[in-house]
Amino acid sequence: MTPPSGSAGVDAILARVSAGRMAATVTTLASDDFTGRRVGTDGGAAARAWLAGHLTALGATVDTDEFPVRAVPEVYAAPTVVWGEGSASTLLVFGRQVAVHSASCDANEVRRGPLGVAGSGDPTHRWLVVPTGMSLFDAYADAQGAAGLLVSRAVDADGWQYTTLAGPDPGPLPILALGADTHRAVLAAAPTGRGWLSGNTPLRRRDVTGTNIHATFHPAPPGGVDLLLTAHYDGVGDHPDLRQPGAADNASGVAVVLEAARILSAARPPGVGLCVALLDAEEVGALGSAHHSRRLRASDAHPLVINVDGAGLLDKAAAVEAGGPAHALLALLDQAGRHTGVPLAAGPVASDNRRYAAAGLPAVGIGAGMGGYHSPADTPDRVDPDTLRAIARLVVATACLAVPAPATLPS
Amino acid sequence: MSENTQTAPATTGGFAGDPAAALAVTGSGSCCGSPAQAVGSILPPAGEALTAGPCCGTAQAAEAAGSCCGTEPKTEAVNAGQGCCG
Asked: Which runs of consecutive H residues, i.e. helices, occur in A30-165?
């Protein structure tokens, strides 16, 4: 296809962006079959197979690249946690009132014991309520022989305790995170001598294999622009009986990259090479991009990297974080923002873009909102089609404006 | 996974200010896995980044801990309910 030229040509290309197609991608990636796409799971593998097939159908040469990932936490059973005062008892709701703390040891057997307060009294066989403000290190100091620790954790606007996979190594005790209201009630009951709790912490850590997906559409010509579009496809994964679909984080970013690649591979803006990397293991510390950026350095490749992390709900402006020698890329992004009417502002995008930047590559991360972060509320219906469309147009316009006259920032 | 992402008001497309501010985002030395900012919230102004990586703490502390992150800032981040790389 002969690419249209000039501003009208860019607009003609941008007109091909389909919000409906991206919304369908988000719905697929967030579906039950993919189980939240945690690294090393069957759901992650199913998502990868679907994505590789999709990229192949778009005409790309697709391959995968594996790397080891150590100690990925997995809640393998819903914890059963009940607390009470005297004969009264309350079963706590997993994910809302109680969650397994990421520093907990694995203890699947339910332990019942009286309540105590960390740092005071005999801890033996007690569930110790850790007062707000006390660190886990301090709580451990007087917890010899305790049944476990109970720490306070805020819930989000939907009432969920969000899940994180990147965290500490396991400590010596079971640790349960209680929603702030529950924590207050349990802390108040502890000194009465009548409070008790029974609970377990079924949390194991698995060494798994992460797998990046690489798609090459067409190489950059000599003197051209080598563009790499990235997004992570992994999520924090489902808990037992608790789906965490990962729609905004980051099925939305993947959908944007796929749509941009579909359009750019057909339009082929002159002088622009196009590759895509869909990355694994971002949720455990951006390990997929760390692996890929090392590979790029070793091969002496220097692409311009555009990473999309969240295109769920654009309100005032999309956040842009840049690193590496990215002045020219930022100027292009600015031009693209003006062309498409997408407002941009400097803001943190703590994602794979940082790994590429740390490797010395010009890299920008674009973030445009996530509802229900790392929780069951991150569902496709909360991903705004207009936001998908806006960010895809921004990315496509950036590529189209990259040639023939790359912009520079005023000195 | 990022802390993201809605930022200061802008009425037209592109950056309202200097695009180069995106090269020095405050907080870019913090943890991966921080919760999303509320939609429409105002992020901290751009400033000097504390570190170049996606990890907690300083590079020196991370090196001493043999990890992506320093042990103490990582523990603080986890205690605060945040994730942390490495």
From this structure: 42-57, 136-141
